[in-house]
Amino acid sequence: MPKVLVCGRGGSGKSTFVTMLAQTLGEQDKVLVVDADESNLGLGRMLGIQPPAQTLMDDIGGKKAVGSKLMASLRSGGTEEVKMFAGTFSIGELSTESVSWNGSVGLAQIGKVEHTNEGCACPMGALAREFLNKLKESDEEWVIVDTEAGVEHFGRGVLEGVDAVLMIVDPSYEAVLLAEKAAKLADEAGKAFSVILNKVDEETKSRLKEMLEAKKIEIAEVLPYSTDISEANLVGEPLTAESLKQTLKEIITKIIPSSVKAG
Ligand SMILES: Nc1ncnc2c1ncn2[C@@H]1O[C@H](COP(=O)(O)OP(=O)(O)OP(=O)(O)O)[C@@H](O)[C@H]1O
Ligand SMILES: [Mg+2]
């Protein structure tokens, strides 16, 4: 099954969507959720999964070690592509310290900001790219990547390791502009790109549709504003996909396989 990257502007609903998608996929298949957002801490709580004991960055020696490798590569005229894993690996081969499981859904974290002045995010981007490139999932396994807000991770090449991009667009002009940019970057990288409207009502849905169509961006699916979701996030409880399950199933059967084929 494909590796799917979920992107969008800050607060658009990326982590919420990743959680509900993983839960819905997890009813039949194995799903590894990769948290590539180094700032936010809420994904584990939304999934109802205790974050793993260590991040993937810890697993390979820490941010400093990866940063030094990157610098050495750049100094010797190389690129930001440094070898961090000896070869390819499967989800089952990942250590129990770096993936937490709740039934068929697992959570791994690329790395988190731990200290002030700890340096740029390049090592995180490099690790995310290398990890996704080397991870080989089977036909019954999915990899869903939650990202930080904006499109910086596109510039760091994280896109290279995935098959399809789902962009969450909430009702705002900035989200439309970002969708235009993300669509262009995904196209440049040769990746399938789909937009999902989130937190909309009938009025905002039709206005967003108009704005996106003017930029030749098609809307693949629509998730309405849900009081169940906002209530769970308000009190800090795990999310359940119950109220939006039908729409999520449509996204899975319709959008993801066809977008991967198209890519
Ligand atoms: N369909 C929805 N209905 C109602 N509220 C929603 C919906 N989707 C997301 N939200 C709310 O939007 C807020 C942001 O959601 P979430 O944390 O998933 O966004 P994000 O894009 O991951 O944010 P960040 O950029 O900070 O990582 C949360 O308070 C959540 O409850
Ligand atoms: Mg998030």
List the keywords.
263 residues; binds magnesium ion; CobQ/CobB/MinD/ParA nucleotide binding domain-containing protein; binds adenosine-5'-triphosphate; alpha/beta; P-loop_NTPase; 8-stranded mixed sheet; ATP binding; ParA/MinD_ATPase; Rossmann fold
Strand content: 15-25%
The stretches of 5 or more residues where confidence is low (pLDDT under 50) are: none
CATH superfamily: P-loop containing nucleotide triphosphate hydrolases
The beta-strand count equals: 8
Bound molecules: adenosine-5'-triphosphate, magnesium ion
Mean pLDDT: 86
**Architecture (CATH level 2) name:** 3-Layer(aba) Sandwich
Distance between the termini: 14 Å
InterPro entries: CobQ/CobB/MinD/ParA_Nub-bd_dom (IPR002586), CooC (IPR014433), P-loop_NTPase (IPR027417), ParA/MinD_ATPase (IPR050625)
Protein name: CobQ/CobB/MinD/ParA nucleotide binding domain-containing protein
Organism: Syntrophaceticus schinkii
Domain CobQ/CobB/MinD/ParA nucleotide binding: 6-238
Descriptive account of the structure:
This protein has 263 residues and is an alpha/beta fold. The protein has one domain: Rossmann fold, CATH 3.40.50. Helices cover 41% and strands 18% of the residues. The chain has helices at 14-25, 43-47, 56-59, 63-75, 122-134, 152-155, 173-188, 202-214, 227-235, 245-262; strands spanning 3-8, 30-35, 100-102, 105-109, 141-146, 164-169, 192-200, 219-224. The protein starts with a strand and ends with a helix. The model has no long low-confidence stretch (mean pLDDT 86). Magnesium ion (MG) is lined by residues 14-15, 37, 40, 146.
